[in-house]
Amino acid sequence: xxxxxxxxxxxxxxxxxxLLESALTHKSFYINKKxxxxxxxxxxxxxxxxxxxxxxxEYLFLKYPDDxxxxxxxxxxxxxxxxxxxxxxxxxxxxxxxxxxxEEINRDGNxxxxxxxxxxxxxxxxxxxxxxxxxxxxxxxxxxxxSLENINELQNYKDPKxxxxxxxxAEALDPPKYVLNKVSGPSHNPIFKTDxxxxxxxxxxxxxxxKIISEQNAAEMAINYLEKNKFNDIKAKKTFFKKxxxxxx
Length: 249
Description:
The chain has 249 residues and is mainly alpha-helical.
């Protein structure tokens, strides 16, 4: 893997190139092979996620002294959500350098939001180890510059959970219920699977490397489903139970 061009684009010259290589290696690349966990990017992603949260939190805390905790949390969530990280990752063309199994590549796994977001967080983790806090802080602030400068405009964007909540309220339906189905994977990098119910009907199911991400993904799938289905399944069941209850009054 020729990483000189990528290092030039990132403006980062790694002392330990193995860190960069590991950050860009999906676990599927070593499928059916006995390999040390350090060779792929899950541990670096775990570290990079925390480093990114800390630096963005510090920036927002100092930049907006009048914002309360809730507003700061909302701003941070917008900046570091999976879609945002995936978009930045694609701009850096990390998808062109991701090492995956041929099966994953054939399924366009290198273009999947979760894989791209993980790769960016792993890259941040690798830079932190190789260059230290101040260097990675400068790297992140520069990388997120446009989003940080336009965060107040970005706040007008509604995340899938908030949008779904408004949709079901407008249709006089019960609020969405998010049920954690299972947690799988290693303890340092778990995968959360969430089922979403509306009026006791399972509408969607999705996973993510954070509980909130699995919920947001499930909400987005539910919105797409409801737009196509026009709420027919839910409303039909709601009408049925209403008729049953009326018989006992």
